Amino acid sequence: xxxxxxxxxxxxxxxxxxxxxxxxxxxxxxxxxxxxxxxxxxxxxxxxxxxxxxxxxxxxxxxxxxxxxxxxxxxxxxxxxxxxxxxxxxxxxxxxxxxxxxxxxxxxxxxxxxxxxxxxxxxxxxxxxxxxxxxxxxxxxxxxxxxxxxxxxxxxxxxxxxxxxxxxxxxxxxxxxxxxxxxxxxxxxxxxxxxxxxxxxxxxxxxxxxxxxxxxxxxxxxxxxxxxxxxxxxxxxxxxxxxxxxxxxxxxxxxxxxxxxxxxxxxxxxxxxxxxxxxxxxxxxxxxxxxxxxxxxxxxxxxxxxxxxxxxxxxxxxxxxxxxxxxxxxxxxxxxxxxxxxxxxxxxxxxxxxxxxxxxxxxxxxxxxxxxxxxxxxxxxxxxxxxxxxxxxxxxxxxxxxxxxxxxxxxxxxxxxxxxxxxxxxxxxxxxxxxxxxxxxxxxxxxxxxxxxxxxxxxxxxxxxxxxxxxxxxxxxxxxxxxxxxxxxxxxxxxxxxxxxxxxxxxxxxxxxxxxxxxxxxxxxxxxxxxxxxxxxxxxxxxxxxxxxxxxxxxxxxxxxxxxxxxxxxxxxxxxxxxxx
Length: 581
Fold this sequence. Notes:
The chain is built from 16 helices and 23 strands. By secondary structure, it is an alpha+beta fold.
């Protein structure tokens, strides 16, 4: 049936009033002018009519398609194979009158090309029975191309998101890991396998010396050689990629030819051994650097030839190298500051002098490795009137500046305390005046105590506290209590009235122990100060009859784990009648 035949018999051939086309003429106009392909089939699925757009899209003259089985002639899978008739959308329409639609199967064109199409098929009924089917279709190549572009964009977005996630996670991890080797090992485990099959980190340990500190092998590697350790020196003559990165700080993206390039320098040979053990078809080597110097190099490698690194991944690894370099430099700087501050503190923390029959012991424990040194100190001195002065203090802060201010404050307090005989509160006031006058005030807490009494006893403790944890008095029978009187504002607060500080006096029973200490002895992360004070009180009570040296050792041993503060403590033991403490 031709298009004309399909239109004939619908309505009256005479046109309606106003010159509008007749029913048959209207059908012919729609069929011929439709912008989408349309073909009709009979009840057996044979093509009975084809519109011009269908013939154009399929590259087949209409007359060559008439009478052909539509399924056998046109319907194909994406690979060009004939779709099983049971899976064809045309047959449910003809057999059960169920309309259907779909997208991106293929129609076979006259030149053998497979045309991706979007289609819909509807039943044509007459007298209540399905007599034919109408298949409407259009070229879906543009839609496929759009889908491909969208898929490519989504894949690129996923890759970008993953790279940003790696960079963000690496930055956070490096920032919270205080030890260099552990931070670099974590970096390697982050990179493998998310970005590379294996990774290595090498660090400068001298002007030419290099040490391999991290090797993260492929997940399926079963060998057990020791890859970490000293490497041959970096020489000016070596053109090997690792040497170039360590000398110049340039980042390199290497392909198979670059990886295989010969170089007889020992450092190049050491790097080739790693490549030979794990394999590599694409390698990135970037510097670990700061603005001032090159600290080392990060090497990452892939072994799949179909997945080489690209320029975006080079930029990502460069960023990881910069982050790692800054982290390594920061940890090293912190370690140097910690060592200087700790050395300064130890120089100032003198061995307590003999104080007649009184027993004295002191201990100092620096903050854990990786924490900044603080300004904790203790001091003991014999005053002009023969009384023994005890000091424990803590300058606010945890850095080299805090340690320097601690040294300044400690020396100023010794001079002021020796200058005249005064109650501890007035000495602390004069110390504060001096601190504020120097022009570089430091906030600090401290306890200053005078141990007063004749050589044979009895003795009393005369003290003032400037915002510091209270002294602990432990009697021989195991009773322990805090001396909470004489609590005053800390040193360095300008807004309080000088002279407002007050003292307290406590009689010291025979064989009792007074403990002065800094905050680190009682403060543990995640717990309140009251819990720490109660823990110290109970432990000290149990140690009441230990020697003053043993008392200090075991009190320090009971300090909370996980603390980040220095600890300074000073213990005074009062002797019994006729005894030496």
